[in-house]
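@channel anyone free to eyeball this complex?
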Amino acid sequence: MWLAIAVGCAGCFALKLVGYSLPRRVIEQPVVKHVAELLPVALLTALIATQTFTTGHHLQLDARAAGLVAAAIAVRFKAPFLVVVAVACVVTALVRVVA
Amino acid sequence: MSDAEPDAELDPDGDADLGTEPIWPATRTGVLRDAAGVGLATGAYGLSFGAISSAAGLSVLQTCALSLVMFTGGSQFAMVGVIGGGGAAMTGAATAIMLGVRNAFYAVRMAGILDVRGWRRPVAAQLTIDESTAMAVARTTVRSSRLAFWATGASVYVFWNLATLIGALSAHALSNPRVLGLDAAAPAAFLALMSPRLRSREPWVVALTAAVVALISVPFVPTGVPVLFAAGVAVIAGVRPNGATSRDKGAR
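replying in thread with the prediction:
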């Protein structure tokens, strides 16, 4: 775990530092910029999907899905970050109690 | 962390603007007040990061190390998210690094404004995140831009780390995070972080494709790897010929 933390931290810091060290034209290629814009979208959606709809190596539909729907509604109404997270937790917990 | 795109243009060589701000003390007060506000707001994210990280099984020390050293919210959430989902820690680190790519672009922007050398360069690099960059490029002069960067970076650093510690300690006090629905916290956090990026058709298509690819591959590959496949979706979509220019113009 500590090794992974060190690798992750070093990688993230190197990325920050490289922007101060490399010439601007090297890093600001249109293709590089475009991939960089799409990476977070793909990674975060994949994380949302796998953490909501899977358990281990199985697809599973459970209370977490209700939490995610509630979070999406909260986002739609421009709720603050903490409210979005809290709504998801509360709804998931309530569905578990009822089910 | 928030998701402002630092699109505002600021002359990178605009040193001539130094000191020409009409009412500097008032500007300075405004910049510092904004910096404190942003720091407090990100403290809220820090609380949830600390809690989610603890729920994922990281110790308080490991959780705090991430906030102190990695110090880039999206990457930190992703790393503990992968680990919490049962993925290998190294896979989490890889995901975190890919999410940190945007900071390199922020750094390019800030390098032109800050003009840092020597020991200040790594310090500036560490503080280069969504918030500090957004606040800096929103300013119209180099002087206020630099102050906004340093003040916001420092403020977020302090509040983010304090909140992480509090969040981690409080989650550790709970016996079963599932009862409180805490396993739904990370996906909700990712959703809130990602939603500002869904401004045009292309990110929607990439998002949905990534989700489908990830879910389909879950039964067949080690945990955490489906997320790396999703990164492949972004790379393929990004390097596609004529995908970049035409669509981006439509979106802006």
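from a first look: The helical segments of chain A are 2-21, 24-27, 30-53, 63-76, 81-98.
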